[in-house]
């Protein structure tokens, strides 16, 4: 593919991404059309993709609060007093359970404000890759998380068990479909299966689809000039043209590396509101590099 076409596609992807980011706060605003007197059970989650999972399984029977809001990072975010008040009214908390910093720092406090709340660990049964907490960025892991969410909702609200399990089965099928789609997009590339990214949130994705993720950020910190130079060297070694960035993190260092290699930055969101649409967009973004 020639450079001009690549740039046009990059710009289109960025536009799609911005539209996705600017979508309404569907999980934060109260649900429209809710039947009066039927509030739905109070559910709290740590990150936006979990809210999407809960809404897909729980539909109008749940009211979801997300602790780490859009644009914030679960590695650094601190909850507000009004969020803790929401927690105090909730019936279930679905934690990611992978050791993400927000939960390490705040689960004690969160349990203390609502000791009766059921806490469900969405990571149970998922094989951890070292210290990487980003388990949700693999549709196969997402299926496990969705199973835990369904089990938790059925336990808390057994009257609607048939509704939850039917929704779960439908969503698990969508996750299988997107998994097949990603394989279809990426499996054909045999030569270059390496990508460089500022914040390494796609280790589980890389593991699932046999790709290699190279991080610019080092142990959660901005890269030193030496690390930046190493990244430029590696990008040249692997003949990379794209540097992937997330909207929740500063992009200057990634842009500097992209400039050095005559490439460009491309957004990939590790914390989407619409998980399935985002997975498709990630496959498209990564296929740019692999072509
Ligand atoms: Zn992260």
How would you describe the overall organization of this protein?
With 291 residues, the chain is α/β, with parallel strands linked by helices. It has 2 domains: 117 residues, 3-Layer(aba) Sandwich (Rossmann fold); 141 residues, Rossmann fold. The chain contains 10 helices and 8 strands. The protein has a 4-stranded parallel sheet with strand order 2-1-3-4, sandwiched between helices. α9 links the parallel β7 and β8. The longest helix is centred in the middle third of the chain and has 26 residues. It is globular, with a radius of gyration of 20 Å. The N and C termini lie close together (7 Å). The site of zinc ion (ZN) has 5 residues, from loops. Zinc ion binds next to loops.
Outline the fold blueprint:
Layout: H1 3-21, E1 41-45, H2 48-58, E2 62-66, H3 81-89, E3 92-95, H4 101-113, E4 118-121, H5 139-156, H6 161-186, E5 194-197, H7 203-208, E6 212-215, H8 225-237, E7 242-245, H9 252-260, E8 264-267, H10 275-290
Zinc ion binds at residues 75, 134, 199, 201, 270.
The CATH class of the largest domain is identified as: Alpha Beta
Uncertain spans: 15-37
Total helices: the number is 10
Sketch the major β-sheet. Answer: 4 strands, parallel
CATH architecture of the largest domain: 3-Layer(aba) Sandwich
Order of helices and strands: HEHEHEHEHHEHEHEHEH
- Say what the CATH topology of the largest domain is: Rossmann fold
Quick synopsis:
48% of the residues lie in helices and 12% in strands. The chain is of the alpha/beta class.
